[in-house]
Amino acid sequence: MNGDTKALVTLQGKPMIAHIEQHLRAAGVERWIVSTNTDNDQPIKQVIDEGSDTVVDTQQAIGPLGGLSSCFQWLHTQMPDCLIYTCPCDTPFICAEVVHQLVTRMFEDQYDCVIAQAHSRLHPTIGVWRSELGNVLNDYLENQKNYRLMKWIDTLHYATCDFSYLPEKTFANINSPTDLLNNQ
């Protein structure tokens, strides 16, 4: 996005991270953390609610696995034994129903994680995870050089939750200035 921090890019009058925060609140999430790949998290802290936190990716340049690993580490000390819901900041049209359905599916079995699927496409960055997967992920990162999120998920006991009944736009990523312009 022209070098801008995606979370802070304005969409429909507010930063994209504020759209995510809105759906988290609607889902009843009381506390949330933002994983960032920059040490300068002050601008994000100014946008998110008090009581929310930011964590800096401890492993840079490995994509979503870096953010997930940092969140697991933070949760291990702050909120052990909880479920983690993940959603990229560039999917501002996600809705509270996604959180509810992923959590519901998680309790149908002893899954390690449940990820979203919609319109014949997996969305592995949108999911619910057991917090105790932190050590499993750390072991994987130490022994593998493939940092694709789905590669790691394939090693877990996971399920998908189909959201094809929701509009495709629900899972749309805002990755470029053109995407941003088309969604204003």
UniProtKB/TrEMBL annotation:
Gene3D superfamilies: Spore Coat Polysaccharide Biosynthesis Protein SpsA, Chain A
Keyword ATP-binding: no
Domain of life from the UniProt record: Bacteria
Segments forming domain MobA-like NTP transferase: 1-152
InterPro entries linked to this entry: MobA-like_NTP_Trfase, Molybde_CF_guanTrfase, Nucleotide-diphossugar_trans
This protein's UniProt keywords: Cytoplasm, GTP-binding, Magnesium, Metal-binding, Molybdenum cofactor biosynthesis, Nucleotide-binding, Nucleotidyltransferase, Transferase
GO MF, one example: nucleotidyltransferase activity
PANTHER family linked: MOLYBDENUM COFACTOR GUANYLYLTRANSFERASE
Protein name, UniProt field: Molybdenum cofactor guanylyltransferase MobA
Organism: Sessilibacter corallicola
